[in-house]
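step=encode ok
step=design start
structure_in=
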């Protein structure tokens, strides 16, 4: 058989939403990925009522069921906002290594260092009522407890914000920001974000952003 004519198996990609969102809002993203040859599925979780550890445990269970217990060569993960923290907590679990040999993780506006805005409103009762358990997950001191991604994972970070000037959308967040997360807050040790610009809440639906993420997820190296 001619190797050039062999179709490469579709890469499985799990898509994870952020705080106060649901998997319903991920369907346009899932459809986009499926139309480009990925095997995509949306993972939903109760952002207001469970801990980050519980979200990671449920994600592992979801992937196990979705992949029918098979270990895949490559697992793609596409996250928005707090979903990036869920992905990192999952990757820190021993079970993640049993589900995929390698992972490619595309994070859209992840509060990898926590969110200064969440810290600012930490004691504000309406904020804690609205966000529930996520109010603690988004704190910088909580995010600092997460280990860096394992060596099996390649990570792309795409950050929103403004393309000109050092001031972002919110005056309450230092430096450039997308209105909820600072560009600097998205970075990981040794991994700087790419600035794609724009507001936080709509980043996961922008075609140009999804195209960049899809290209990264499809790359062989």
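sequence_out=
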């Amino acid at each position: 058989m001619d190797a050039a004519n062999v179709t490469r198996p579709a890469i499985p990609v799990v898509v994870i939403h952020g705080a106060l969102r649901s998997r319903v809002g991920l369907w346009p993203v899932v459809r986009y990925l499926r139309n480009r040859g990925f095997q995509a599925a949306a993972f939903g979780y109760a952002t207001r009522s469970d801990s980050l550890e519980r979200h990671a445990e449920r994600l592992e269970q979801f992937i196990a069921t979705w992949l029918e217990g098979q270990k895949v060569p490559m697992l793609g993960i596409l996250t928005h906002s707090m979903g990036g923290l869920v992905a990192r907590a999952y990757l820190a679990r021993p079970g993640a290594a049993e589900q995929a040999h390698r992972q490619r993780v595309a994070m859209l506006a992840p509060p990898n260092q926590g969110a200064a805005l969440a810290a600012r409103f930490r004691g504000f009762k309406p904020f804690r009522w609205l966000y529930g358990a996520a109010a603690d997950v988004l704190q910088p001191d909580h995010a600092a407890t997460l280990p860096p991604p394992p060596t099996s994972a390649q990570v792309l970070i795409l950050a929103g914000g403004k393309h000109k000037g050092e001031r972002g959308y919110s005056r309450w967040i230092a430096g450039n920001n997308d209105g909820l997360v600072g560009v600097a807050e998205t970075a990981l040790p040794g991994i700087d974000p790419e600035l794609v610009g724009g507001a936080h809440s709509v980043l996961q639906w922008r075609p140009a952003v999804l195209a960049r993420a899809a290209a990264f997820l499809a790359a062989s190296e």
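step=design ok
step=annotate ok -> The mean pLDDT is 94.
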